[in-house]
Amino acid sequence: MQPSELSLTAAADAVRERRLSPVELVDSVLDRIARVEPHLGAYVTVTAQRARSAARAAAHEAVAGRFRGPLHGIPMALKDLIDVAGMATTASSRVRADHRAEADSTVAARLSAGGAVLVGKTETHEFAYGLTTPQTRNAWDRDRVAGGSSGGSAVAVAAGAAVFALGTDTGGSVRVPAALNGVVGLKPTYGLVPRHGVTSLSWSLDHVGTLTRSVEDAALVLSAVAGHDPRDQSSLSAAGEDYRPGGEGDLTGLRVGVPGNYYFDRVHPEVESAVRRAVDRLQALGARLVEVEIPMTRYIQATHWGLMVPEATACHERTLRTVPDLYEPDVRVLLEAGELLSAGDYLRAQRARTLMRQEWARMLNEVDVIAAPTVPVTAVPAGESSVTWSDGTEESVSEAYVRLSSPANITGVPALSVPVGHDRAGLPIGMQLLGRPLAEALLLRVGHAYEQTEPARGLAPVG
């Protein structure tokens, strides 16, 4: 096994026990990037020289017995919405081609302080306004979509081109590519991870999240980046916490909500079967299954779009007027559509969100977590614009991928996507666990317990 194949947890143990040098680890990941990046297109830029310099510094600290924590010397990637001082933050757009960050974002600074080593900035669907990341290819099948908008981050982790990565999630943009590429994606509670220095799409829906190869890895990264930042007005005053899951996987007494509506509607049979098998596995670990009814489902799509579209247009108001031709056509259309929505439409969406949060809080008083599919269908062929369901109805690819993930953004509850198998074409399937606000520790414990019942996952078979 090459060092680039190690999970974060395994790599951290090896570095701490001085069985592996940060220099060896970073070199292995950079070698892996050189091999797979021409096939995948996960990176906007690779910072090899910077990474090797940081790895040497981390190695010197390790020799001296100075460890900054579990991320010491671990190679990471950041979605190219996240500022790193002196580097471009392009948002994968010609609009931002000349932008350079003057300072680190909060999350980049916290990861650097924890000893993590940046190996590059990853591709996003332009300004995170899409669910496919068309310039990046799926780690399991290059002819399929990577998912979005954090497609580059998910693909890099799945392919061994980063040990972990950060992404952003406005309607599923961490969890969707995590599910489609067979990695773990965590969208924390709204406000738990600061967004200062992160390019916004929709300020009331945006979250910074993690992409890792295991649930335990996600806990390690969350522990490093979570916590209050006064520069982010939405930042929660939550105390620092060690989110690493413990225990032997016994879920006795845990109430797992299984949706009787919405989450299993218009879902591919192979996805439904894999998720229901995973739910049965939770029951075998001692959990009690409780059927729940998802509230206000007829308003979910309208509420999500009613919030996101006008907020995104407001963020881009100046450049949409001055350099409209620099946007890709799909993003430009959405931004222009936002100018047609009235203040009344936006306020109605905000009122619907308030009611939805109240109803979800009532539902989550009855169960501890909800288990459901992350996306209704595995990675579709690149260029495919719609999905046709068994009843003959047609749905756009973007609407299909966002449908099951957007409720967690509207309500702000934490959500974790965990791989639960593959379809007959060998494409990954994800199960989504949702919980009460600030219940990340419980979600991670449940996800970790499930993960312990499965064989260890290897890298995507990139040729």
TrEMBL record:
<dbReference type="InterPro" id="IPR000120">
    <property type="entry name" value="Amidase"/>
</dbReference>
<dbReference type="InterPro" id="IPR023631">
    <property type="entry name" value="Amidase_dom"/>
</dbReference>
<feature type="domain" description="Amidase">
    <location>
        <begin position="24"/>
        <end position="444"/>
    </location>
</feature>
<feature type="region of interest" description="Disordered">
    <location>
        <begin position="230"/>
        <end position="250"/>
    </location>
</feature>
<dbReference type="Pfam" id="PF01425">
    <property type="entry name" value="Amidase"/>
</dbReference>
<dbReference type="InterPro" id="IPR036928">
    <property type="entry name" value="AS_sf"/>
</dbReference>
<dbReference type="InterPro" id="IPR020556">
    <property type="entry name" value="Amidase_CS"/>
</dbReference>
<protein>
    <submittedName>
        <fullName>Amidase</fullName>
    </submittedName>
</protein>
